Amino acid sequence: MSKLSLVRQAPIHLTVAVLFSLLIGAVAEAADTVRLLTARPGWQAGLAWDARDRGLWQKYNLDIQHTSLDTSAAAMEGFVSGRSDMAIVNVGVAVNAFFRGVPIAIIAGVPAADYPAFTMSPDIKELKDLKGKKIAVFSIPSDATIAIDFVLQKQGLLVNRDFTYVRAPAPNICETIKRGQADMGVVFEPHGSACILDGAKQVGGPGTVSFDPPRLIPSSVVVVNTKFLEQNRDVVVRFLKAAGEAVAWQGADKAGAVAQLAKYTGEPAAAISKSYDAVKFTLAVDLDFHKVMLERYLAVKLLPRAPTQADLDNLYKLDMVPR
Known about the structure:
The protein is of the alpha/beta class. The chain has 2 domains: 31-112 and 218-315, Periplasmic binding protein-like II (D-Maltodextrin-Binding Protein, domain 2, 3-Layer(aba) Sandwich); 117-202, D-Maltodextrin-Binding Protein, domain 2 (3-Layer(aba) Sandwich), CATH 3.40.190. The chain contains 15 helices and 10 strands. It has a 5-stranded mixed beta sheet with strand order 2-1-3-10-4, with helices on both faces. Strands 7-6-8-5-9 form a 5-stranded mixed beta sheet, sandwiched between helices. α7 (143-153) links the parallel β6 (133-138) and β7 (163-168). α1 packs antiparallel against α2, α3 (47-53) crosses α11 (233-252) and α12 crosses α13. The chain starts with a helix and ends in an 8-residue tail after the last helix.
């Protein structure tokens, strides 16, 4: 018998009480709203789409109002302007915002993918072979550019003295090296894998372009407005539980995760499948690696000063990451 039928058949003196209990139940079941900003779908931000499609936001009683923007920088700008409560953004822009006084906390990581280095040249077998060469990189400054600078410095090679950059939109980097306009390319996935499947040769293995090779660069993190966190800690905990289940599913179901990302990116499933094999699927944050990253960000003046331990304690709130 439905709840409505019970109301119709109840004695008049019980009707008000029944209706009141139904109203209270409806209020109790109302989902908590979280405004989320991310960049376009990829391995880093894909959990937002996967959690929705797999019913995980609903499972944890969350109404996720998700907006996807073109870049991580755009998502960070929206977060700073108050357009969202949470976001998935690049580590560097998150820490920079913290130093600018934005009420922000890093509460989790997201899956880390490789930045493959690839070439069409038979003369380039290792990074040390790049002396006098041109490297095609993403037109917007990124961790990949900072990292390739770093690893080539260890080879005794300096930008503009020993090699130069050719900047291009990520989808065009493969064509740039195929046309001979650059000797090697470095780009985020799945564009790198797509080019390798199209005849390019990978230079080194996964993690070659990194702040600490061969470990992959954990470029992005989940951030939250600290005022929102103070007032809605339980909501944030439930968000991370749902995100954690989405990432666990990605790591356990290659075919499903590849199909899902291909659906939302429009990129070839074969390239996404190849890129999948190097992805580290976890929400955990490796603080030691992050400290290495922060040192590099400071070296390129992305940060105004070195973070103190007090800064790190205020910025990183990792006790809510699902174990």
